[in-house]
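User: I'll paste a sequence; please echo it back and then give the predicted structure.

Assistant: Echoing your sequence first, then the prediction.
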Amino acid sequence: MDVAGIDRAVCLGVAHAARTVQRTNEFIGSIDRTRFVPFGTVHPELSPAVNLKSLRDNGISGVKLHPLFQDLSLSDPRVIDIAAALAEAGVTVITHVGAGGDTDANDRGSPRSLRVLLDAVPGLRVIACHFGGYHRLDEAEDLLVGSRAVLETSWPPSTAGLDPARIRAIISRHGADRVVYGSDWPMTDPAAEIAAIRALGLPPEDEAAILGDNLAALLGILL
């Protein structure tokens, strides 16, 4: 973080099974909050009330969903019920969206599945990783670009590998005020990902918004 010039980082905890939710939230809730923002975990095998209590007990106001690692679908009714409880509690959700596993896992986290969740829980604040569709960018452009989801910019091994003109067009269509920088560390180098955003040649105010101002406003962080 120091080398890359990053002041604050969001740290994402993911429980692969229901039995590890509480311990994961205890750990992620204990990190140094002067530099780190904890996002905890939920699991569809636990009730919305149990998931929410675990977050509240550890002072966590954000959740990471990972369809590939948690064997959950973003369109699963159980996930939708949990998401409704999170929305009511003002909890922000960030989720992997797109490919990265086998066919079933890819479908669980597809842009289409996320769109079902967005439509089912209109009050939910959602950050969609990888421009809304890792290696499924066509689908993301059809279903999520222009939606109310906030798009995150990481793209392992690097955003620099994407067509800059396409990324500029996505940002323009979606709105630079609803795009946030992400490194997906340790999958990518944070400094290189910042450089990739700067290399897009966006207006200075849009670049600054994406590289920190938007996320700070979303999470209520004073800069």
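Residues 9-219 form a domain with the TIM Barrel fold (CATH 3.20.20.140). The CA atoms of residues 104 and 216 lie 34 Å apart.
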